[in-house]
Amino acid sequence: MASLNVGNLGEYLREQRRTAQLSLRQLAEAAGVSNPYLSQIERGLRKPSAEVLQQVAKALRISAETLYVRAGILDEKEREELETRAVILADPSINERQKQVLLQIYDSFRKENAAEKAAENAARQSTDT
């Protein structure tokens, strides 16, 4: 797990809040957290839990996974995978069976690509020695 970069998170949250044209008080109320606590998060003085980040993300109408990455709770690759899965599961134009098949195909491609990459790395290391 990456280290917590609270300052970067706070700056990002402030930027998102301003873009949404919300005051600190309005966002705190919408997210169900106290105004002083949210202020401390924005200033990089507090490390919010994943639950608080999820509440703030919902209030800002942004991806919670993006905040998790900013906070160092989740790495970028994990976020991309979760978002891909969420898009597939949220698609109303395909049925549940089709969604599960797509996820299985997605998983098989990821495994295949990871195996190929591992083999390439092993081959590269053997030629380097």
Describe the SSE topology.
Elements: H1 6-19, H2 24-31, H3 35-42, H4 50-60, H5 64-71, H6 76-90, H7 96-128
Plain-language structure description:
The chain is mostly helical and 129 residues long. The chain is built from seven helices and no strands. It has helices at residues 6-19, 24-31, 35-42, 50-60, 64-71, 76-90, 96-128.
Short description:
The protein is mostly helical. It has 7 helices and no strands.
Individual helix count = 7
Apparent shape? flat
Contiguous uncertain segments of 5+ residues:
1-5
How would you sum up the major sheet? none
Helix share bin: over 70%
* Beta-strand content estimate: under 5%
What structural keywords apply?
75% helix; single chain; disordered N terminus; 129 residues; mainly alpha; 7 helices
